[in-house]
Design brief:
The chain is built from six helices and two strands, in the order ααααββαα. The protein is mainly alpha-helical and 138 residues long. The protein folds into two domains: 85 residues, Winged helix-like DNA-binding domain superfamily/Winged helix DNA-binding domain (Arc Repressor Mutant, subunit A, Orthogonal Bundle); 46 residues. A two-stranded antiparallel ribbon has the order 1-2. A hairpin with a 3-residue loop joins β1 and β2. α3 packs across α4. The longest helix has 25 residues. It is elongated and about 55 Å long.
């Protein structure tokens, strides 16, 4: 499957998923990070303007502005006044590892909370599996 086809399928999924519980800007951040890490947007490439991205994703310009600002703080993009926003040179494996570590840390907190409430490992695994299934059915 071509990269543009995958991009289009993922983009449609993001717009469909905008009804999920997490804020739209967080969903857009995750989507754009995925696009950058998978090199749909390559190093040095100019991103669509805030207005153009808002129209493409069917969100407000304020949302896109926040996403671009957050990604700039995270080091994914650089915004140059009057020129636009560009993808930075990235150490993708390092960034993916950092994101993985953040997720593992969050999961460890959930596990600790479950154990404090008396759940055993097997019960926590069953709950995790149930939560995954619920997520897939949304």
């Amino acid at each position: 499957m071509c990269i543009l086809c995958i991009y289009d399928i993922y983009a449609r999924r993001v717009n469909k998923d905008l009804k999920k519980e997490s804020p739209i800007y967080e969903q857009m951040e995750e989507w754009l990070i995925h696009q950058i890490e998978s090199q749909a947007y390559r190093e040095g490439e100019k991103l669509p303007s805030i207005r153009a991205m808002a129209e493409q994703r069917d969100v407000s310009t304020i949302t896109v502005k926040r996403v671009y600002a957050d990604l700039a703080l995270m080091g994914y993009i650089e915004t140059i006044a009057g020129k636009g926003s560009f993808v930075c040179a990235l150490d993708v494996p390092k960034l993916k590892n950092e994101r993985k570590e953040q997720l593992v840390s969050a999961l460890q907190e959930v596990i600790c909370s479950g154990k404090l409430k008396g759940y055993k490992d097997a019960e926590l695994m069953m709950l995790f599996t149930e939560a995954l299934q619920r997520e897939e059915n949304r």
